[in-house]
């Protein structure tokens, strides 16, 4: 970026970002230094890309007019801990309104690709139209500035995410990579394609330890464009952190932002896996398509039980001290560490484990690994399979698909392979479409077409107002279970003010664990921006920009045909309350009606003019 001001909130037009627009149908490249319109543009990520998406009228995600926007955040590649994020934005194949229009969406992941991309000198890459042949893009740092080239990708066709990255590393040993799997290549029948991002650990160990930008089908959009991978080549430019940034980074590790997901040896819960222990206290761990049974069965996948049969290795992202990764390995007969299986995060572990009736760690790991290799969003994949299982449980005389039932590992595996290969559109197109085909929509666990994360809707009515997935764009998932808030005032405040600020991390380039409870409008972020760019900016100015970006996303939803009736949690939750969930009832029809009234009273007036 070219920065000619110290006051980005009041003088954003004095800051320019470097953009390259690639016409995939002609191969033409256009570079431009673009002045920022507002602080959202300066911060980056979806705060910038959604403003550009708002300028386009898109009625079908798979059209040449739908761009794929790849960008970073202001602190991507900086000395601020967790500053590794890359953002992929476009109109989503899987998330859409009942009127059939696709929703604007972004997806994000860590790994080192984002930093390498930023260090090439490029801030944003827009892919227009589509190539008539498979290609990959190389973004290179040169003495005269960033260069982008398109290369034939024939040798990559049909490879999984990890194998594509390993193949590209042979030619570009100093680079990092973003790649789709077979699911994205089969975009016609699979709307949940993810983008895999390479990691230092993966490239050194040759084990498939990608990070993923999974939500919303951006990998399928890449597949439609015949763009199979991105390569970022640059020298590393990570400087030593200043005293201000050191203090912020130390606070990230020792403060409240990431304390609960720190390794057990440092007093934490051992990654996001620790959510099992927290939620099981209330029998609120999703089981069998989000219907907890009030028993101890989720405890089979507690960390302490998995460690009895498998090796667990704690690892971290590039230059991150949080160390939240739990990589699972087979254990050999002699007690030594065997084959790498998968990374256990709470979402994929639950949704491809406990929530589909799989309670054996090795089986859950194999399903996670399989979905990762095919390049599918674990959340959408797991929830759609659990819907099929729930349907078959209700209709044993006339089951759908391969007759899959809860706990049937082999048939679940068959469905993942078939979906990844484009042979099972019933799974590949997501739970909303499958439930509309069966005519039984109440127990399809999505909101606005996007499958929900592994937190019971009984504990999180805030899902309804999330703009990009319940746990990444509306931080209310712990408001009841962790903070004990069950009154209407707290929920209105959480949804309309405090908890929406989690989306700010998907603008600025930081992982949410930087300060998951507060968002980016904090003194820590102010200090990092002062150190990195000499910015004079306040936490209040940052919070205002985050709020505008969030509401702009909601305004875009309405423009794409959503009605207020679609801002609802799955109907089974309030039509058939689960007595096994031991939490105060905040999803009764009466509570939800009052919550909707009050939330819209606040949001609705603020939506006016945001897309002008």
TrEMBL record:
Sequence ranges assigned to domain Aldehyde ferredoxin oxidoreductase N-terminal in this UniProt record: 17-236
Cross-referenced SMART domains: AFOR_N
Cofactor(s) demanded: tungstopterin; [4Fe-4S] cluster
Superkingdom: Bacteria
Keyword annotations: 4Fe-4S, Iron, Iron-sulfur, Metal-binding, Oxidoreductase
Recorded GO MF terms: 4 iron, 4 sulfur cluster binding; electron transfer activity; metal ion binding; oxidoreductase activity, acting on the aldehyde or oxo group of donors, iron-sulfur protein as acceptor
Protein family (similarity comment): Belongs to the AOR/FOR family.
Protein name: Aldehyde:ferredoxin oxidoreductase
Lineage: Bacteria, Pseudomonadati, Thermodesulfobacteriota, Desulfuromonadia, Desulfuromonadales
């Amino acid at each position: 970026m070219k920065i000619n001001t110290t006051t980005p909130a009041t003088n954003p037009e004095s800051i320019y970002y470097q953009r390259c627009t690639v016409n995939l149908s002609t191969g033409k490249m256009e570079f431009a230094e673009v002045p920022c319109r507002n602080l959202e543009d300066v911060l980056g990520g979806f705060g910038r890309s959604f403003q550009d998406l708002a300028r386009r009228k898109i009625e079908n995600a798979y059209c040449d007019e739908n761009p794929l926007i790849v960008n970073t955040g202001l602190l991507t590649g900086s000395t601020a801990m967790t500053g590794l994020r890359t953002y992929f934005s476009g109109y989503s194949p899987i998330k859409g309104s009942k009127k059939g229009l696709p929703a604007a969406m972004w997806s994000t992941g860590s790994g080192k690709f984002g930093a390498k991309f930023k260090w090439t000198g490029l801030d944003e890459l827009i892919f227009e139209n589509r190539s008539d042949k498979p290609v990959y893009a190389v973004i290179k740092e040169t003495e005269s500035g960033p260069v982008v080239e398109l290369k034939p990708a024939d040798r990559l066709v049909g490879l999984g995410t990890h194998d594509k990255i390993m193949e590209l590393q042979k030619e570009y040993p100093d680079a990092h990579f973003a790649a789709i799997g077979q699911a994205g290549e089969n975009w016609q029948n699979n709307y949940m394609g993810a983008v895999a991002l390479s990691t230092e650990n993966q490239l050194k160990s040759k084990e498939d330890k990608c990070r993923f930008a999974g939500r919303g089908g951006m990998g399928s959009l890449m597949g439609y464009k015949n763009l199979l991978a991105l390569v970022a080549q640059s020298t590393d430019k990570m400087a030593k952190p200043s005293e201000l940034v050191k203090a912020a980074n130390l606070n990230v590790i020792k403060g409240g932002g990431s304390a609960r997901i720190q390794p057990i040896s440092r007093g934490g819960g051992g990654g996001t896996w620790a959510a099992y222990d927290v939620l099981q206290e209330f029998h609120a761990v999703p089981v069998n398509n989000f219907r907890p049974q009030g028993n101890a069965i989720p405890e089979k996948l507690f960390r302490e039980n998995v460690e009895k049969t498998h090796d667990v290795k704690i690892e971290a992202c590039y230059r991150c001290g949080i160390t939240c990764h739990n990589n699972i390995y087979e254990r050999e007969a002699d007690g030594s560490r065997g084959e790498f299986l998968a990374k256990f995060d709470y979402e994929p572990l639950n949704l491809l484990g406990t929530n589909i009736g799989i309670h054996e760690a090795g089986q859950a790991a194999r399903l996670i690994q399989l979905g990762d290799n095919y390049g599918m969003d674990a959340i959408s994949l797991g929830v759609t399979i659990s819907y099929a299982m729930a349907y078959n449980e209700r209709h044993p005389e006339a089951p759908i698909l391969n007759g899959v039932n809860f706990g049937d590992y082999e048939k679940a595996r068959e469905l993942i392979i078939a979906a990844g290969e484009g042979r099972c559109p019933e799974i590949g197109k997501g739970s909303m479409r499958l439930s509309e085909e069966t005519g039984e929509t109440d127990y399809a666990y999505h909101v606005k077409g996007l499958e929900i994360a592994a937190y019971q809707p009984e504990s999180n009515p805030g899902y309804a107002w999330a703009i990009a997935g319940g746990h990444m764009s509306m931080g209310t998932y712990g408001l009841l279970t962790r903070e004990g808030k069950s009154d209407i005032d707290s929920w209105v405040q959480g949804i309309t003010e405090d908890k929406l600020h989690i989306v700010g991390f998907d603008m600025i380039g930081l992982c949410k664990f930087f300060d998951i409870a507060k968002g980016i409008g904090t003194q820590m972020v102010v200090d990092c921006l002062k150190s990195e760019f000499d910015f004079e900016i306040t936490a209040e100015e940052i919070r205002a920009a985050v709020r505008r970006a969030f509401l702009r996303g909601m305004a875009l939803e309405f423009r794409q045909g959503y009605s207020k009736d679609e801002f609802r949690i799955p109907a089974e939750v309030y039509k058939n309350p689960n007595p096994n969930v031991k939490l105060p009832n905040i999803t009764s029809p009466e509570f939800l009606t009052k919550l909707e009234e009050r939330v819209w009273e606040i949001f609705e007036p603020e939506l006016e003019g945001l897309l002008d």
